[in-house]
Amino acid sequence: MDLICTYAGAKSYLLARTDLYSDRNHDFVLTSNWPFNLVRKYGATLVDGEARTSEVRRCLQAFEPSFREIDASVDLSPEYARRMCLIPYNAGQACMLLALLFEKDASVSHDRMRDVALATAYHTSQFPELVSNNYALSDLTVREVECLSWIGEGKTSDEIALIIGISRNTVNNYITSIMNKTGAKTRSEAVAFAVRQRII
Question: Are 144 and 166 a contacting pair, CB within 8 Å?
Fold first, then answer.
């Protein structure tokens, strides 16, 4: 990552998985040499924003750099420019985000940022443990996957309860468990997660 960061002309990097987002901790950050106050301030916000992006928009934005200003209230060393470059991409089935910080007055090339994203995608894909989806397959129970499949077909909790032959309350408990395990905030997000991971 240091070599890629140097090629990009960047001062610091943050690499995260946007499909592992959880507001309980920072496990979604794979590696970073950002100042820690920035990771705490922006890490979850950036990743949560990417996690909520629709599948179509995610495909259109892949490998396309965008820039975001850093709040003036954030304590940042004077050597850093007060904006970050964000590059979403996929490595295997994993959804990733590379966020770069630059020095003041650094020249940032759009084409070079795309090259950096491609190099980072190749680099991360060489480490199966970083892009593995086994956590999702092993964490969800058979019944939870079944409920998720019915949700994907547009069924309500009452309809799922009738189809499976369990109470509506039990279905809702399964759905709550699914959303906790996947980090999803809505049913549609949970379904999108499951489709991305080929669980359903």
Answer: no
Given a contact cutoff of 8 angstroms between Cβ atoms, the answer to whether 49 and 185 are in contact is no
pLDDT at 101: 93
Structural domains of the chain in order of their starting residue, each with its CATH number: 2-131 (3.30.450.30), 134-196 (1.10.10.10)
Question: What mean pLDDT is reported for the chain?
Answer: 82
Q: What gap in Å lies between CA 136 and CA 193, rounded to an integer? A: 9
- Are 28 and 16 within 8 A, CB to CB? yes
The DSSP 8-state label assigned to residue 179 in this structure reads: H
143 in Cβ contact with 181 (< 8 Å): no
Summarised one tens digit per residue, pLDDT across range 155-193 is: 999 999 999 999 999 999 999 988 888 778 888 888 887
